[in-house]
Design a protein that fits this description.
About 40% of the residues lie in helices and about 20% in strands. The chain has helices at about 20-25, 55-70, 85-95, 120-130, 140-150, 160-170, 215-230, 235-255, 270-275; strands at about 5-15, 30-40, 50-55, 75, 100-105, 110, 115, 135, 175-185, 190-195, 200-205. The structure holds 3-hydroxy-5-(hydroxymethyl)-2-methylisonicotinaldehyde (PXL). 3-hydroxy-5-(hydroxymethyl)-2-methylisonicotinaldehyde (PXL) binds near residues 9, 11, 17, 45 and 217.
């Protein structure tokens, strides 16, 4: 069985970060070791959330795993709570990056052009620096702009603008840069990427469902990492993640009892397993 590490927070209610990554990647048949960076009562879109920082545990967990000799096929990072945690995550990369270990970074920190509560532009720049160590980065348009110090062009930026951003993202040093949540001229919605090795752009769109929800970036990045660990190539893994995320949004959209803080990712896990040819 493949084994990965995912490093992000636990939002006790919110269906994002670890409470999405752990069930999705485990269901895909991949051992999922977790490094919780913080415990929050809810994700930061609610008012009055509690926040218990777990930075002090991060190095001891890494040191223990190193002593035990654990090896990992991927390291997938999401929401990080502070600049210090960015440095600690960099140490995880240095410690556990083996010859075939894939590093996936989702720099979860912003949406609609605005940073989440508690972050500033300096933090965003530091996250950008960490991208140099990643194989694949998965920012949305807001996160891409903030890491680059670029003006936010809006969620529906045209394809040329997105391509220009991708070329700048490529300069951060990851092997493959992907912007999620891009809108295409035909009205579909998906991802646009750039592969440094061969200098090519790629894209994929699914029907746009008129529901904007939190946590969809985490659903996407988790399904992507799980598909990669099931031996799909990067483009096919991104497509699987996009199809699954679209199904989760649609499921919520059609559910009269939906919650307003996340999508029904649980109900579409059987579909995800079909996409990767698992029962
Ligand atoms: O889904 C991204 C995310 C992860 N973790 C926390 C968040 C958010 C988005 O709001 O607040 C704590």
């Amino acid at each position: 069985m493949k084994r990965i590490i995912t490093i992000q927070d636990i939002s006790c209610i919110g269906k994002c970060s670890l409470t999405v990554a752990l069930p999705i990647i485990s269901a895909m048949g991949v051992e999922t070791a977790i490094v919780p960076t913080a415990v929050l009562s809810t994700h930061t879109q609610f008012k009055g959330f509690t926040f218990t920082d777990l930075t002090e545990d991060m190095a001891p967990i890494k040191d223990h795993w190193k002593k035990e000799g654990f090896k990992f096929d991927a390291i997938y990072t999401g929401y990080l709570g502070s600049e210090r945690q960015i440095k600690l995550v960099s140490d995880y990369f240095d410690t556990f990056k083996g010859e075939n270990t894939v590093i996936v970074m989702d720099p979860a920190m912003a949406d609609n052009g605005k940073l989440y509560a508690g972050f500033d532009e300096y933090f965003a720049r530091k996250m950008g620096e960490l991208c140099a160590k990643a194989d694949i980065i998965l920012p949305n348009i807001s996160e891409a702009c903030l890491m680059l110090g670029e003006k936010y062009p809006g969620e529906e930026a045209d394809e040329e603008t997105v391509k220009k951003l991708l070329l700048k993202l490529d300069g951060l040093g990851a092997k493959i840069s992907v912007i999620t949540g891009t809108t295409f001229a035909d009205g579909t919605f998906g991802f646009t990427g750039y592969d440094h090795a061969d200098g090519t752009f790629f894209k994929y769109g699914t029907p746009k469902v008129p529901l904007k929800s939190h946590g969809t970036g985490d659903v996407f990045a988790s399904a992507f990492t799980g598909a990669l660990m099931n031996s799909f190539n990067v483009y096919d893994s991104l497509k699987i993640a996009a199809d699954y995320t679209c199904a989760c949004i649609k499921n919520s959209y059609e559910d009269p009892e939906k919650v307003n803080y996340a999508v029904n990712f649980e109900l579409e896990i059987p579909y995800l397993l079909k996409l990767i040819n698992k029962k």
